[in-house]
Specification:
Layout lengths: L2 H23 L38 E17 L3 E21 L2 E13 L4 H10 L16 E6 L2 E6 L3 E4 L2 E11 L3 E11 L14 E13 L2 E11 L13 E14 L2 E10 L8 H4 L2 E11 L4 E10 L8 E10 L1
Antiparallel strand pairs: 1-2, 1-15, 2-3, 2-4, 3-6, 3-7, 4-5, 7-8, 8-9, 9-10, 10-11, 11-12, 12-13, 13-14, 14-15
């Protein structure tokens, strides 16, 4: 087995763990736990239709929920050899307005309006100081200009991808319909069909230029009085897009699993793992898409029905997702 083959097998083995945990969570007696609305924020993966976390418990008929959430991420990675040259140095803000509405008993629709900004950003200095504080390596950051935007992939003399100018705008729009498979006081299980509509400009990595379709199962379960578990598994069929089309896969999968603890009254603390398979058949972590992401954060619920989320992502599979992502959300039912 070659070194490249070994590196590619390791992420796939790790990726299986969150999916197995997610499926296990669907088998027990479940509960009212909701995942944090974040996933892998790699700017080369975001244009594709891998779903964000979906609700396991649908709203009651003729009611719904709305949410505004932000993922603010920063990535720095490079991989240079005799055959290729890859650079990923960027910062992005992904802002989404989500609306869920149950149009019949056990049936609901969901739409997200995403706005994305890609730039050199302002977080490089903060992240380097953070790494220095905890004795963590800065990796490629040590020889990269601060607050630069450059996403580039070159094979030999052929430049296959280059993004070096800031961009912002509406990204591809996911439309989903969900069905409640099971809902009791202690458990919930739903299935979702999501179609990702190509609205964003693929030249600016706001979209991928193709329709993607995903089938998902989401569940939640009560583990103990103050402990809940949730999970989700996604199978995604990828249309032939405009970003590195010669290497793009036609299928990808993703999964998440997490645990929430009711720490104090209206405060829940959450840890969740998200994983996805590769989107590009290229043996470079920051480009292929294979990733495992750890998220830790919490939720504050008010008596008036508002929910406020906060969290942070870390790249467990090094360089496959941004070094750091900050997550914020506000949600409410209607």
């Amino acid at each position: 087995m070659t070194g490249i083959e070994a590196r590619r097998l390791i992420p796939r083995g790790v990726l299986a763990l969150p999916a197995l945990c997610a499926l296990a969570s669907l088998a027990g007696p479940a509960a009212h736990a909701d995942p944090l609305l974040t996933r892998n924020q790699n700017p080369l993966l975001l244009p594709f239709g891998l779903p964000n976390p979906l609700p396991a418990r649908l709203p009651a008929a003729d009611s719904g929920r709305y949410a505004l959430y932000v993922n603010w991420s920063n990535a720095a990675d490079d991989d240079i050899s005799d055959s290729h040259n890859f650079t990923l140095d960027e910062e992005s803000e992904d802002v989404r307005l989500r609306l869920e509405y149950a149009f019949a008993t056990d049936w609901a629709g969901l739409v997200e309006i995403p706005w994305r900004h890609l730039s050199g950003g302002t977080l490089d200095g903060f992240i380097e100081n953070w790494h220095d504080l905890f004795g963590l390596p800065n990796g490629a950051r040590d020889h990269m200009p601060e607050d630069r935007l450059l996403i580039e992939y070159q094979e030999g003399d052929e430049l296959l991808l280059q993004v070096d100018g800031s961009a912002s705008g509406i990204a591809d729009v996911p439309l989903a319909v969900g069905y409640q498979l099971k809902a009791t006081e202690q458990s919930a299980l739903s299935t979702w069909l999501t179609v990702d509509v190509p609205v964003g400009d693929s030249n600016d990595l706001l979209g991928n230029g193709a329709v993607d379709v995903a089938l998902s199962i989401a569940g939640q379960t009560q583990l103990a009085e103050h402990w809940q578990m949730f999970g989700q598994v996604d199978a995604v069929w990828l249309g032939q897009g405009d970003i590195l089309p010669r290497y793009q896969e036609s299928f990808a999968w993703a999964g998440l699993a997490g645990v929430s603890w009711n720490a104090w009254r209206s405060l829940d603390l959450t840890v969740q793992f998200y994983a996805n398979s590769q989107v590009f058949d290229i043996p470079i972590n920051g480009l292929s898409g294979d990733a495992v992401v750890l998220t830790y954060g919490g939720t504050w619920r008010t008596p008036g029905g508002w929910r406020f989320d906060f969290g942070m992502n870390e790249d467990i599979q090094v360089d496959a997702s941004p070094d750091m992502t900050f997550y914020f959300a506000v949600q409410r039912g209607f």
